[in-house]
Amino acid sequence: MRPSSTLSLLALGSIAQAAVSLENSSLPRRDIENFERAIEARSLADDIWNDIKNAATCTACQGILVLLKGIAVFGDGAFVSVATELCKLAKVEDDDVCEGTVGLEGPIIADAIRNMDLGSDTSKLFCGSFLGLCPEPSVPQWKIPFPSPKPQTGRPAPSGKTPLKVVQYSDIHIDPLYVSGSSSNCTKPICCRPYTAADEPGKSISPAGPNGDHKCDTPVGLEVSMYQAIKNIVPDAALTLFTGDIVDHAIWNTSQPYNQKQISDAYTYMSQYLGIVYGTAGNHESNPTNAFPPRSISNSSQWVYDALSDQWTRWVGASAESEIESIGAYSTKYPNGNLRVISLNTNFYYRMNFWLYQEGIEQDPDGQIQWLVSELDAAEKAGERVYIIGHMPLGEGDAFHAGSNYLDQVVNRYSSTIAAMFFGHTHVDHFEVSYSDYNSRDASHAVMASYICPSLTPTSGMPSFRVYDVDPETFAVLDTTTYIADMTNADFQTTGPVWTKLYSAKETYGSKLNPPVTDASVELTAAFWHNVTALFESNSDVFNEYISLKSRGWNVASCTGDCKTQELCQLRAGRSENNCVVPSIGLHLNKRSDGLHEHEHSHHRSHDHQECGMSAGMKTLGSLAVRKDLLDELETRANELKAKA
């Protein structure tokens, strides 16, 4: 360290020496000198703001991290206190939501920031994910080692025999505290709870019906209604896939006992109404939400894996227990056919999981990718077909580019063995296509389809589930049909939800292809789904129908121009680095932040109810990129803590 730098750091006291560590960071020399001068002059917030205005956004974010480190070094309590104050000042949520959420996830954020090397790829990843101020770093190269070469035989042809029925539902988000008649309009992430006296049944001016509301999570009655509908509509279902997320969106008020009971209750209902159910771990199953650390960092999610193991082993057997309790994943053989189901813990690749922002994080958390390769290779040698299920789709913007890239290599290698992949998380009805060459995204290079199931919770559309027709020997998907409970039906809140068919893929899309694909025995291949995206590109009417079906006809918005281009890119992105998502400053900020300065003192705000996994802490971080007053407050609090040290 140069003598001048030593003097300036000593002048800053313990905050700079212990937390900022500029000289030992990966920052360029010029940035180090600028930050040191700004800290000494107590003008770092001004410099950060000027950098943002002058488009030097990644440099600006490193400056924000300097300030955040200056808070985090004083301990979790100090960090939680300051972050809670900033959350309230930003008005990204009500005060109690700020207190609860930041109190839960703040210590994890503080730990990540304390250990973060300024200027490193980890810091840039953090800045891109939560502030929209850095592009995502290049994917670290890792060529996955495979124990055997890919066979030349290709995918087996469908048998032509009578199809089986496979059910999928996702993102049920049950709210056991839902109260019929309570207010369906509120300032919280979810409503239909009597938060105040004015929200009580009989007093609310917007009373919720007994069976659900678009601004609320799922009442138990709606959940049971879906299970009953599945039993009635698909009495001969061979198996059911549940792609995760049980716990409601009141993420400021969760606890380990609360989540454990939610998990137990949901799977108990499933076992009462359905046959074999294969589940996967959603990001909401943990407490705090999204918090799934690799074992090399912490074992704090062990209770989640234990709770899931207690429920899943009734269907997957005791032999899978050790895998579930170790990494929250499993591989099991379907007892009535030549099918293996592999459930992945996609939370290890989820950018909202603060535990993953550690320096030197392993490229394969808990060895799950190597385990997956081993399971797929054994399945291939045994001639088994495989379904891969997980919560988060691997091509979504929520997926780290690196983890998605590595898993995509595995999918390409075993594309002849994997019959299909199934995910949830997005709450909407869509799909993704994986390719052998993402520079040539066409039908000839399409290798795998991911089926992304719409949610039961009505926050993003009508309550839904899917039924797949599958070949009984190859387990290839032959058709997919979505069923909904139409909330505009007059019977929905009176005699109860009425579940009806919304559409099927072959009827809606296959019939319009050239040549048409309507034969009941023909597989919906990855090439089929690519051709559907080409149909969307050339036929606006069909694309608009798809957009309407995404939300199951609810709150349908126009999607043209850049919106359509982005949507097509997302559908053709089984790998997240190819989804055309570009971070924007203040990424993930709630829509209600628009015009916030004009209404700073108003506590009557509308809420964007289409978020999943977003938290008050994340929104507060995003606010730092667009609110100069928050930067000033952050710098003031850092200086106050330093003065007391």
Automatic annotation (TrEMBL):
Zn(2+) 1 binds at D171, H173, D245, H427. InterPro entries: ASMase/PPN1_MPP, Calcineurin-like_PHP, Metallo-depent_PP-like, Sphingomy_PDE. Zn(2+) 2 binds at D245, N283, H391, H425. Residues 1-21 form the signal peptide. Transmembrane segments: none annotated. Binds 2 Zn(2+) ions per subunit. Disulfide bonds join C58-C134, C87-C98, C186-C191, C192-C216, C559-C563. CDD domains: MPP_ASMase. Converts sphingomyelin to ceramide. This is Sphingomyelin phosphodiesterase.
